[in-house]
Design brief:
There is one protein chain. By secondary structure, the chain is an all-beta fold. 0% of the residues lie in helices and 44% in strands. It contains no helices and 19 strands. The protein has strands at 4-7, 14-16, 25-29, 36-40, 45-51, 55-59, 70-78, 85-90, 97-103, 107-109, 111-113, 121-126, 130-132, 142-144, 152-155, 162-164, 171-173, 180-182, 189-190. It has a 9-stranded parallel β-sheet, with no helix packed on it. Strands 2-4-6-8-11 form a 5-stranded parallel β-sheet, with no helix packed on it. A 5-stranded parallel β-sheet has the order 10-13-15-17-19, with no helix packed on it. It starts with a strand and ends with a strand. The model has no long low-confidence stretch (mean pLDDT 93).
Length: 191
């Protein structure tokens, strides 16, 4: 079994994991192009370290058969303003929650795409500022960031979202749905 995959991508690699079992951790460090990882047999963690690009993770149906699948996204100095996306997908079932940890230095994601995996809950922790530039997908109905101490900048989707923010100076843009915003201790802006 392969438990940890660490890569530096400079050629937009596509990696087929159909015969790999036991993988729990993927790290893309100092990559200049975004890798695509196909046929993942389990739901685990993705770490993006010191990079301007994202990644695409495609999971098999068997990997997401559970009713409470949870993925982890560790952001460690990601400056993805150049059009980069982080994409999660699953063949048939859902990844119910995605837990994002923003650490090391401020992190920016241009586009977090979770529709293909049916993610409904985002958990956000860490102490470094996090900006997600594009509005969250409509399937995300809960954003739980009460323990987050950095500044959070997000726009929610249109499906009606419950947002709890932390102690930072947060900037939250509401969508077309009936959103519920529970702002934290910081001097927050709700649009």
């Amino acid at each position: 079994a392969v438990e940890n995959l660490v890569l530096t991508d400079s050629g937009a690699a596509t990696i087929n994991m159909v015969d790999v079992s036991g993988l729990t951790s993927i790290t893309s460090q100092t990559s200049t192009t975004a890798p695509t990882i196909n046929n993942l047999q389990s739901v685990g963690s993705l770490t993006l370290n010191n990079t301007t690009v994202g990644a695409t993770l495609n999971h098999t149906a068997a990997a997401t058969v559970g009713a409470s699948d949870s993925a982890t996204l560790n952001l460690e100095g990601v400056t993805g303003a150049g059009g980069s996306a982080i994409i999660y997908s699953a063949t048939t079932n859902s990844i119910e929650s995605l837990n994002i940890a923003s650490t090391i230095s401020a992190n920016t994601i241009n586009d977090l795409q979770t529709t293909g995996a049916g993610v409904s809950t985002l958990g956000i922790t860490g102490d470094q500022n996090l900006t997600i530039s594009t509005a969250l997908d409509a399937e995300v109905t809960t954003v739980s960031a009460g323990a987050f101490t950095g500044n959070l900048t997000i726009a929610v989707g249109g499906g009606g979202v419950a947002v709890t923010s932390g102690s930072g100076v947060d900037d939250i843009t509401m969508g077309a749905g009936a959103d519920t915003i529970s702002a934290g201790a910081g001097s927050d802006t709700i649009r």
